[in-house]
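Bug #77: duplicate submission created two jobs. Keeping one. Sequence:
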Amino acid sequence: MKISTEIGSAAKLLGEERVIECVAKAGFDAWDFSMIAMCHYRNHTFEPSSHILAGKDYLAFARRLKQIGLDNGIHCNQSHAPFPTYCPEIRSYLKRAIECTAEAGGEICVVHPDNRKEARENAEMYLELLPFAKECGVKLAAENMWLWDSERDQVKHAACMTPDSFCEHIDVVNDPFFVACLDIGHAEMRGSNTSAVEMIRALGHRLKALHIHDNDKWKDLHQIPFSMSIDFDAVIRALKEIGYEGYLTLEADAYFKACGYTADNAEEGIVKLAESAKKLAAMWEEIE
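Kept job's structure:
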């Protein structure tokens, strides 16, 4: 089983080019092209970004990252478009993210649904993007989302949050270029009334990508696997049960900040992430 990790969090410390080199050196098979820095939405306001992904040389940058990966023996397996997609200005960047995915060599681009919309409403956005994605040879993936209920201190219903909602989102679009990316941590949050295992079994053949991280089964903490409360043995067994053929891709993007890593020791953090991913892969191999 091949392993991958998002590069956006470590790139804040080292830059994308250096992170890809470190990810390869640590033993990952692939990298997840995080494009969250392409633009920002803070305090209900859109903020343009100074990142190269927001400039005119964004495709050249994606090609450069692809080559760095290939020079170091790894490739891009998937990507993450900027969000939230309900922000009109961010919607305008989604095709750019798909283009970058293609240039980097990625097969899947994760595009969040609008958290507050149901399947048929969200289908409009995906159906609008699919012709362009097909031209680029990139599959789109929806992800299970959440909304926070501050009164109950837990999550409440959001797009793709339950097995029924997630399956409906994929099935309404009904296109082989539209697939599911299961966020393991989101499925284990308090109030979700589901679990990662239940979601995996329900999604079955629809599941083509993962965001793997750990939490306390309450909040969305995005920590390194095996550091908190999620039962990864059960998760891996369920994935094997459905015949999952994708990558084990980490999205522990709060790990570096939580552990106080800096540019001086960020490579050590990448090594730790690789160790956790290799443990997941070993668990896969041990299951008959």
